[in-house]
Amino acid sequence: MLYNSSFLRCLIGSQLKPAGSAAAAAIWLRQPRQCCSLSSAAAAATAGPATAEIRYPDGKLRRLSCAWLRFNCRCADCHNAATRQRVISPATALAAGKSPPRLSQLPDSSGVRLDWSDGHVTEFAYSQLESLLSPDGGGSGRGRSLWTRSAGHPLEGTSAIRPVPLSELESAPSGLRTVLRNLWSCGVATVTGVEATEAATEAAVRQVAPVMPSLFGGMWTFTADGSRQDTAYGSDAIGVHNDTTYLHNGAGLQVFHVLEPAPVGGDTCLADGFQAAETLRQENAAHFHLLASAPVFHQYQEFEAGQPTHHTRCLDTVLKLDPESGGSLYQIRFNPYDLDSLAAVPQAEVAAYLAAYAHLSEILNRPESQVWLSLRPGTVILIDNWRLLHGRSGFSGRRVVSGCYVSRDDWTSRARVTGVL
Ligand SMILES: [Fe+2]
Ligand SMILES: [Zn+2]
Hints:
12 helices, six-stranded mixed sheet, 24 strands, 26% strand, binds zinc ion, 2 domains, four-stranded antiparallel sheet, binds fe (ii) ion, trimethyllysine dioxygenase activity
């Protein structure tokens, strides 16, 4: 669930005044300080009925909900350290949080101790509090480098990513970390020295994360034979888009390995969807807001002998923002081919929605937004499908491409455990 900052403020203020009133927020901000013994600059805190102010030794101030503090108590009664799962119930935390704890600094100054009115004791290291407030080191968008064609794109020039030889990926931790760091920072990574077969492509991908099963199978190898009812299985040009916008758990990575390039055409186009969305935010904030707030359906259908065999639909916004960071991009889900009839958009708002959508499309299709590549056998390219868009030019002759999807959860899990996120 997404909570914006004003919602959180109302939630905390609601224990003082009716939720949502401007007065509630103002009163909350003026809570009297109670822990006079902690008023020194290095000391810990001051508590109010619903919030506690915790000042770190470096002067940083955190104003936190008492219910939140109790909800996140890490003592053995409240949290199972072995499974890293919560024991305390939300109702218990809520009830206990109505009475402010007495705050004191830990003897070694590394954190804060909270003595609750029911006799319970909570201790937090300052670093632990920061971790709890920002559980996903990568979710905030830190470490990302948005790019355009001229402003240092990752596939050539001085800001190019380092291609990782398959031998390094297989044998050294640096290989995996480089792939994952490239994916997180730029949305793309390449692995070189891979035999031009589906099996070798799969083996390379599995060094990074498992292959994601989908309605197209696990690994796939396609030529322009029209074997699936998707534009990817033809030879026409395809504009930039995200894949699997019609799945609730849309593919996290798109993997391509061109086993046989087309004699003419068939180049690959990439665009940084987060950069395009930020450009949209600058050029027309209302357009950005509409695409980030109005959900639309995408869908995929297949038929055999006139009978439906696949029909997936997903309702979500084209732009998703990260609530932890207060609005950095979290996912772009852009695919005009798979966008449905706009059934979820009120008729009175369809024109405004289309104007916003067309504006984003126009930005994505500016030459400045797009980088073109001639992929060759031997190089596997991995693309963050929650951020980058891909497309291709039309081609003639035989062209064989192998690839697969990787789930977002699987590759970001590897990124966390290897210290990349
Ligand atoms: Fe695609
Ligand atoms: Zn506890």
